[in-house]
From TrEMBL:
Gene3D superfamilies: 3.30.300.20, probable RNA-binding protein from clostridium symbiosum atcc 14940, R3H-like domain. Residues 4-54 are annotated as: Jag_N domain. This is RNA-binding protein KhpB. Belongs to the KhpB RNA-binding protein family.
Length: 215
C-alpha cells in the first residue's frame, strides 16, 4: 500500500502522507525519498520534495485500527490487543484481553465469530480505498483464550473418539465446527496409521467424521 505526497520540505511531505493515511505513528510507515526539495534562485525554479509512503504491515495496522476504535466506542473498559504472526503463510492471531469477555464472546462464540468477520470486512474495504487487495486473510481473533481452550477440548474429544473407532471399527462423528477447527482436527490425524478423517455436511453444520483406514 503506497502513496506519494509533496511538501516544501521532506518533513512536510512525510506529514502530508501521514495525514492522508490517517496514521499518527511514524514507526509503522516506511518512507522513500523520491525527490528532495530545491530552493531555486530568488524563488524561481524551486521544487517541492516528493516522498513515497508505505504502511509496513497494512493488515495488522487496519485490524488494530478497527478493533481499537470499536472497543473504545463500546465502553467496555480497559483492554489489550496481543498480535502475533506465525508460519510462512503469515497467520495473524489477535488476542483481546478484557474483563467483560462474555460480551465479546457471546453464546457459543457467535459474537466473537461476527467480530472476526467484521474485522476482515473492514480490512478488505480499506485496501479497496487504495485499489489494492490484501490477498487471503489468515486472521484469527480470540478473547481471553476462549478459542484456544475450546480447541484443546475438541482435540481431547477427537482423541477419545479415535480410540473408540479403533476398538469398534465404527465411524464416529464430531459436533459441527468452524473451518479452522476442522482443519486442525484433520491435521492432528494426518499421519495416524489407523485413523482417517473427512468432513461432511454444509456450514454451519459441517462436521468431522473419524473412521478406520483400510488395510
Amino acid at each position: 500500500m503506497k502513496i506519494q505526497t509533496e511538501g516544501k520540505t521532506i518533513q512536510l511531505a512525510k506529514e502530508e502522507a501521514m495525514k492522508k493515511l490517517q496514521i499518527t505513528d511514524e514507526e509503522i510507515v516506511e518512507f522513500n525519498i523520491i525527490e528532495e526539495e530545491t530552493k531555486g534562485i530568488f524563488g524561481f525554479g524551486s521544487k517541492n520534495a516528493l516522498v513515497e509512503a508505505k504502511v509496513k504491515d497494512p493488515v495488522l495496522f487496519f485490524a488494530k485500527e478497527f478493533l481499537t476504535g470499536l472497543l473504545n466506542k463500546m465502553n467496555l473498559g480497559h483492554f489489550d490487543l496481543d498480535i502475533e504472526t506465525e508460519g510462512k503463510d503469515k497467520i495473524i492471531n489477535i488476542r483481546i484481553s478484557i474483563a467483560s469477555k462474555s460480551l465479546l464472546i457471546g453464546r457459543y462464540g457467535k459474537t466473537l465469530n461476527s467480530l472476526e468477520y467484521l474485522t476482515k470486512i473492514y480490512i478488505n474495504r480499506k485496501f479497496e480505498e487504495y485499489d489494492e487487495k490484501p490477498g487471503k486473510l489468515n486472521l484469527y481473533l480470540d478473547v481471553e483464550d476462549y478459542r484456544k481452550e475450546k480447541l484443546e477440548k475438541l482435540e481431547s474429544i477427537a482423541n477419545r473418539l479415535a480410540e473408540k473407532v479403533k476398538t469398534t471399527g465404527k465411524s464416529m462423528e464430531m459436533k459441527p465446527m468452524t473451518a479452522r477447527e476442522r482443519k486442525i482436527i484433520h491435521m492432528n490425524f494426518k499421519n495416524d496409521p489407523a485413523i482417517k478423517t473427512f468432513s461432511k455436511g454444509q456450514d454451519p453444520f459441517r462436521k468431522v467424521v473419524l473412521s478406520t483406514k483400510k488395510k
